[in-house]
Amino acid sequence: MKLSNRITTLNGGGSNGWEIFEKARDMIAAGEPVTMLTIGEHDIGTSREILEAMHQAALGGHTGYAAIPGTPALRETVAKRVEARTGVPTTSKNVLIVPGGQSGLFASHFAAVNPGDRALHIDPYYATYPGTLRAVGAEPVAVPARAENGFQPTYEDIAAKAQGATSLLINSPNNPTGAVYSPETLAAISKACQDFDLWLISDEVYETQVWDGEHISPRSLPGMEERTIVVNSLSKSHAMTGSRIGWIVAPEAVISELTELVTNTNYGVTGFVQDAAQFALNQGDSLEKAVAAPFLRRRGIVQNLVENQNVAQLVPAQGAMYVMLDVRATGLSGKDFANGLLDEELIAVMPGESFGQAAAGHLRIALTVDDDRLEDAIVRLLAYAKARV
């Protein structure tokens, strides 16, 4: 029997970008003391209060089929949160609850593009983006955002790829670069979407982790509300990565059609997880700030260490739970550097090539271990880089 082309071509015949992570995980399983700086997994875990709310909801009987668009209470809570933060009138009819941001990205593209359509995404990109686009039958088309531009895409970059495209996927604050798109960048993105009649799919899962600048949801820009689909989740904002709980915000007609998709795919999100999500959101900004605080502090640790040498250059980290280092001065690719660092120093970081060609020769470092362990890892990483110049 033969598998479908759709499933066998998700990675476009190449890498899925996760080889270093998988290698490091195998080494840890074998008992090696690897410092894992690869994925955006909080070291604090989900708060006990949220877990208690989840536990009580399950004991209370919310273990059966839940409302497919999401529980009315959670949809309303999300709508109020979005309206308060963006100024855009938003009701529960604009909200669909989904099992995590990744599911939201798939569903959004399923709604926005037809098989064979060109679907644009910014490079550097989160590693799953091209596979997600292929999964819905689209042709992924990378729009380069250049290091010398602070990884901010320009109108010209988008326009050069936009002819015949249907959608554009953006992510700000950006994973992997940490770039927070400026008002000027978002204005250029808005103009390109309107000039070329593109759906804009905005991945905003890092909106609560902004260190410099301001998070602006493009849905709030003139002419963009009816062509923007926003994906968000509690994975990063509330350290709930394993709970798989997020949402899509979009025009009512889009949410109505997506509800049919959910009916025919995952059939909704577990009720007690939705109740826990509602509890988490109702804790307000203080909890979100507490979850984000370690990453701002650890960014400072890396900045201070990098300032004392001139081999590895720090890309300005304006947001998110990562920093990106430019190691091209070593003459090594990001992939070769990361493999060598893992083999010789037992430090696992992600090569920039996992996130597209615009990040080649860079490393993405997750700020997800305690301060002392992070400092030790960065000191050894910089010494490894210096020895290769």
TrEMBL record:
It comes from Cognatishimia coralii. Keywords: Aminotransferase, Pyridoxal phosphate, Transferase. Belongs to the class-I pyridoxal-phosphate-dependent aminotransferase family. Its EC number is 2.6.1.-. Residues 34-381 form the Aminotransferase class I/classII large domain. Its cofactor is pyridoxal 5'-phosphate. It comes from the Bacteria. Pfam families: Aminotran_1_2. Coiled coil: none annotated. GO terms for molecular function: transaminase activity. CDD domains: AAT_like (cd00609). It catalyses: L-aspartate + 2-oxoglutarate = oxaloacetate + L-glutamate. This is Aminotransferase.
